[in-house]
Amino acid sequence: MTIKAVRGKRDGPTLFVSAAIHGDEINGVEIVRRLLQHRALRSLRGTLVAIPIVNVHGFLNNSRYLPDGRDLNRSFPGSPKSSLAGRVAHSFFNNVVAQCEYGIDLHTGARHRGNLPQIRADLQDERTREMAEAFGAPVLLHAKTRDGSLREVASDQNIPILLYEAGEALRFDEVAIRVGVSGIINVMRQIGMLPPSRVKKPRRQPMVTDQSYWVRARVSGVLRALVPLGAFVKKGAILAVVSDPIGDTSGDTEICAQDEGIVIGRTYLPLVYEGDALFHIAKYKADIDEVLRHYHEFREEFEPDAYDPANHDPSEYDEDPPIAS
To answer: What DSSP string describes 101-132?
Structure first.
């Protein structure tokens, strides 16, 4: 496991940023790479501990899991005498996480499943909520910790930690990457590791919720999704249609929202089976027009400009050109 520590000339907090605890969730790997090149680190106070690939075995094999078939993010705090997952979890937690005062853990959706940029955290903890609001993601989801997760053991040690979810496994998503880098820099400013930005931007109001639900397939067939990530849907709205591949429209089944909210996750597979999770919707009712306005502004800020490789002059760019989707 490769770890890079960047220490500022002046004292300050210690923050760890980790990615690829699930080896196929690779957006975070690119976020950490860009973070380590960011010019703002020249003014760093304290120590940034960057771990671009926690689950090295899974990363090399394009797999979510370790070779022993276990999920590393269900194996904490682990033990030096247990399975491979338990040993990796124990070593990572004790040698890295427990030595830090704050943490940000980077994730994506599963294979063939995309997530809207969002922060999942214990929003009832004041320090964690302040970090979450500073990050700048369009959605903040209060989420309970899961048994054996990194968030659970960090919380037990009173270490505020954010879980950033965005994009899809095994794919780079330029918007998700840009939001992640910007969000980490924002958090570092909020906890005193970086000076305030000279460019004053109005803070956008995120959608904050503690309830979400999955809409599942009622029948098997070919899925035709009708709403994208980030769409606001009302109760009863048609999200998709599951059809017979032969073309008999009399057998079409409409998939509808059970309650109003914003689509924060969806499957990209066209073939679905009865019971499959199709859309993840965060429940939300208040001030939706204001939230949608902020979301559209958010998209405009992070959407990459057109890039022409034929006319690319590296000297004109302060950062890497965008990754094409």
So the answer is: SEEEEEE---TTEEEEEEEEE-TTSHHHHHHH
